Every structure is written in C-alpha cells, then in structure tokens.
C-alpha cells in the first residue's frame, strides 16, 4: 500500500487552502467547482440515491462542508429532518445531511451525508 506521507518541502503544498485535506493515498471525491476534498471512497455507503438534479451518493462522513438549518422534508423514502450541506470553500450547495429519520427502517441514514454526483469529481488513484 502506498505511503500517505505527502513528502517533504513546500513543493507539496496545494495551491488552495481548504479546511481539511484527505491523504493522497486514498481515492477521494472532491468538489467539482473548486476541488476541495469532500469524502474518501472508503466512507461511501451507497451509490443508489437520488438528488434533485440526478444521482447522489450516501457517505458515512464528509469534510470541508458546512450545514444549513435542519428542516423536515418528505423525500422518496419518507419524512426526514435534513440540513442542506455546502462546500466550505466555494459555498456551492452539494446535497444534505440526514439529521433525523422518522421511520425505523430509515434510521441508518441519521448523521450521514448525501452528495449529488453533479457536484463531485473523483480524485487520487482511480486509474
């Protein structure tokens, strides 16, 4: 397995400053608009979700995202309390975070993140 050490010296520093950087040795998803890291592939739970513009992925965790206020929404799988999430760098709305699920079968989503495919790009080691 490759080392996660980014190497010595300032030549390895990114040109943009983000709140969090994911290790280079992990396959990652980044914001398509500003390339801020959003999630590691290892945190992907499901590719079978639907966002407003199309396909979306469910992640266990995300970085470089902010949350708006929680509100109740009737989604395809029932009533949920969700908060829109946005990129901390470019402020683009990316998807939402499940704050609360009201149906027992949907409780696994609580605390998880939906990121819409139209706002993500794959980075690091997808060859």
From TrEMBL:
It comes from the Eukaryota. It comes from Homo sapiens. Belongs to the yippee family. GO terms for molecular function: metal ion binding. Residues 27-124 form the Yippee domain. This is Protein yippee-like. Keywords: Metal-binding, Zinc.
């Amino acid at each position: 397995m490759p080392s996660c050490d980014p190497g010595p010296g300032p030549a390895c520093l990114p040109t943009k400053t983000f709140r969090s950087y994911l290790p280079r040795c992990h396959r990652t998803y980044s914001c398509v608009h500003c390339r801020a890291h959003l999630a590691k592939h290892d945190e992907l739970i499901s590719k079978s979700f639907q966002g407003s513009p199309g396909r979306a992925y469910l992640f266990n965790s995300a970085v470089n995202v902010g949350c708006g206020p929680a509100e109740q929404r009737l989604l395809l799988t029932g009533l949920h309390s969700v908060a829109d999430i946005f990129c901390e760098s470019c402020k683009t709305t990316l998807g939402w975070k499940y704050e609360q699920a009201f149906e027992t079968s949907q409780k696994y989503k609580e605390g998880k993140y939906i990121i819409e495919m139209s706002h993500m790009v794959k980075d690091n080691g997808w060859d």
